Amino acid sequence: MADRKKRSDCPVSCSLDIWGDKWSLLIVRDLMFSKKCTYGDFLKSGEKIATNILASRLQTLEENGIITKSGHPDSKAKVLYKLTQKGIDLLPLMIEINLWAEKYYTIPAERKAMLIEVKKDKEAFIKTATKELKSET
Prior knowledge:
By secondary structure, the chain is mostly helical. It has eight helices and two strands. It has helices at residues 11-19, 24-34, 39-43, 51-63, 85-88, 91-104, 109-120, 122-135, and strands spanning 67-71, 79-83.
């Protein structure tokens, strides 16, 4: 993990030091729900992240053990990014953020469909999704 000075020992503060910026959870979201896994894939996301910011956030997430990178099987010029167990463990948080957003905002149809499944049995959904994400690592 990167050697950084923590602002405090508060769990919320320590967590935000890693993924509390404007972009990091969007990268985690793309890995988790959109199966995007290359630098170019992240650049194509609707939020239009700048390349320098993307590079910085990927490095921070990797240094903090949220993601890992490996060679791409089809191209020596590409790198594949994947969630680590630490990153996969953000799934319940991401589900709760989605449920909160659904309550207050209009959300895309595919995310609404996912949340219908979540609401049927949240624990089972998280267990199944976690298993699927682990099989990708």
